[in-house]
C-alpha cells in the first residue's frame, strides 16, 4: 500500500449529495496514488429532506443527523472526512480555520471539487454544525409552531409547501397562510403538479395567497410567537403570529470568488462550469464543481447533485490514469425534473419517470409509501452506518 505521505489528495469542499455518490464510487475505484479528502464543517450529514416534517412533528429528530465516520470504512488511505471550515483556496492547497489531525491548518491537493452548496432559510437548512444543536433547533421549531395560532409561511418551493401541509395536518385548528409570489407552484414541473398541489393544500385548509410578492423585513422574522403583519406589493395585509421564511436560495461561492472571480456568474452568483464540470476559468483546469452551487439547467435537487458528482469522478479518474484535459467527457444531463412533495402523512405529489414516460401522480400513488421519517434510513445506508437505535446518538 502506498504510504499516506506520497498519496496525492483530491479535496472536496462540502460533503453532501454532490459528493456522496462520488465518494461511494471512489471507495470501489480508488487508485493507489490518490485519496479523497472531504472537508465539511457540519459534524453530521443533515438529512434535510425531512426537516419540514421534523419542524412540526416530534420523535425522529435524531435520525436526521447521520455520522460520516464509516463512509470509507475507516480506511484513511482511501478517503476521510475532515471537519473544519475552509477559509481560503489557493491553486494547490486550502487553508482551514482550525488545526486538524495529520494536516494542521493546510491541506494540499492535486484536484479540487467545489461542492459548497447553497444557503436557504431555516428550517429548510439549519444554521448550526452539531447534531445536538440541530436536534434542539428542530424541537424549538416544533414548540413555537405548536404555540402559534396563525402561522404565515412565505415562499412555496418544496420546503414551504411541505411545511404548510405538515402544520395544518398536525394542527387542523390553526389558521395557516402560505404566500407565494408566483401564480403557480413548482414552475419547473408539469402543470398538473401545480394543480394537484393546490388541491392538496385546499383539502388541508391552508389559505393560499398566490401571485403577490411579500414585502419582507430586512432580517426576516424571529422564531417567536407575536403579532405580525405581512404587506404585499399589491397592497394586501396578512395578519398572523409567526412568520417562517422559505425563500431566498443563495450560493456559497464567496470562497471561490476570491481566487476565481471570473468563474462566478455575475447575474446569479452561482459557479459557471464547462460541460466537463470544470469551473469556467482556464487558469484552474484542475478545479471542478458540482451540486446546487453550480449554474446549470439541472433542477437543484439531491438527485441531480449526485449525478453531477459522478460525472466529475469519471473525469478525475481519466486524469489520474494519465489522460489529458482534452480527454474529459461532458456531463450528459437527462434534464428531467423529478420530485416528490411530501404533503402530510398520506398526501403527496410526485413527478416521476419510474413507470416509463414522465408523469405526475397524486396521493393515490405517491402518498402511500412515505415513511414517518421521510426516507431517512436511506441516508444511513449511503453513509454505511446501520440504521439501528444504538447508532442514533452517534
Automatic annotation (TrEMBL):
One annotated Gene Ontology cellular component of this protein: cytoplasm
Pfam families per UniProt: Pyr_redox_2 (PF07992)
GO function terms (MF aspect): electron-transferring-flavoprotein dehydrogenase activity; flavin adenine dinucleotide binding
SUPFAM superfamilies: FAD/NAD(P)-binding domain
Annotated FAD/NAD(P)-binding domain residues: 9-309
Entry-linked InterPro entries: FAD/NAD-bd_sf, FAD/NAD-binding_dom
Gene3D superfamilies xrefs: 3.50.50.100
Stated name of the protein: FAD/NAD(P)-binding domain-containing protein
Species of origin: Circinella minor
Amino acid at each position: 500500500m502506498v504510504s499516506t505521505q506520497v498519496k496525492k489528495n483530491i479535496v472536496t469542499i462540502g460533503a453532501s449529495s454532490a459528493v456522496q455518490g462520488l465518494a461511494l464510487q471512489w471507495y470501489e475505484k480508488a487508485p493507489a496514488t490518490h485519496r479523497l479528502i472531504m472537508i465539511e464543517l457540519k459534524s453530521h450529514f443533515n438529512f434535510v429532506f425531512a426537516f419540514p416534517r421534523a419542524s412540526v412533528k416530534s420523535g425522529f429528530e435524531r435520525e436526521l443527523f447521520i455520522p460520516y465516520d464509516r463512509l470509507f470504512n475507516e480506511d484513511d488511505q482511501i478517503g476521510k472526512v475532515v471537519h473544519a471550515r475552509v477559509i481560503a483556496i489557493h491553486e494547490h492547497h486550502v487553508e482551514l480555520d482550525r488545526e486538524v489531525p495529520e494536516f494542521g491548518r493546510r491541506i494540499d491537493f492535486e484536484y479540487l471539487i467545489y461542492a459548497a452548496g447553497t444557503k436557504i432559510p431555516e428550517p429548510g437548512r439549519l444554521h448550526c454544525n452539531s447534531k445536538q444543536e440541530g436536534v434542539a433547533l428542530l424541537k424549538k421549531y416544533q414548540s413555537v409552531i405548536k404555540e402559534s395560532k396563525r402561522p404565515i409561511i412565505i415562499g412555496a418551493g418544496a420546503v414551504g409547501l411541505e411545511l404548510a401541509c405538515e402544520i395544518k395536518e398536525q394542527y387542523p385548528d390553526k389558521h395557516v397562510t402560505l404566500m407565494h409570489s408566483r401564480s403557480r407552484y413548482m414552475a419547473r414541473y408539469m402543470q398538473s403538479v401545480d394543480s394537484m398541489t393546490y388541491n392538496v393544500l385546499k383539502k388541508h385548509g391552508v389559505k393560499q395567497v398566490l401571485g403577490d410578492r411579500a414585502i419582507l423585513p430586512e432580517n426576516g422574522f424571529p422564531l417567536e410567537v407575536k403579532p405580525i403583519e405581512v404587506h404585499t406589493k399589491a397592497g394586501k395585509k396578512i395578519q398572523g403570529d409567526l412568520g417562517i421564511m422559505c425563500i431566498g436560495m443563495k450560493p456559497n461561492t464567496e470562497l471561490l470568488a476570491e481566487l476565481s472571480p471570473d468563474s462566478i456568474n455575475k447575474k446569479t452568483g452561482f459557479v459557471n462550469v464547462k460541460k466537463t464540470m470544470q469551473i469556467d476559468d482556464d487558469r484552474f483546469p484542475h478545479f471542478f464543481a458540482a451540486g446546487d452551487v453550480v449554474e446549470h439547467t439541472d433542477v437543484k435537487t439531491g438527485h441531480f447533485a449526485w449525478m453531477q458528482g459522478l460525472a466529475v469522478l469519471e473525469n478525475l479518474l481519466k486524469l489520474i490514469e494519465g489522460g489529458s484535459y482534452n480527454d474529459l467527457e461532458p456531463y450528459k444531463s437527462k434534464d428531467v425534473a423529478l420530485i416528490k412533495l411530501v404533503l402530510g402523512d398520506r398526501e403527496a405529489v410526485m413527478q416521476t419517470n419510474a413507470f416509463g414516460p414522465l408523469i405526475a401522480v397524486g396521493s393515490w400513488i405517491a402518498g402511500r409509501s412515505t415513511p414517518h421519517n421521510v426516507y431517512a434510513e436511506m441516508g444511513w445506508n449511503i453513509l454505511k452506518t446501520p440504521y439501528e437505535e444504538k447508532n442514533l446518538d452517534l
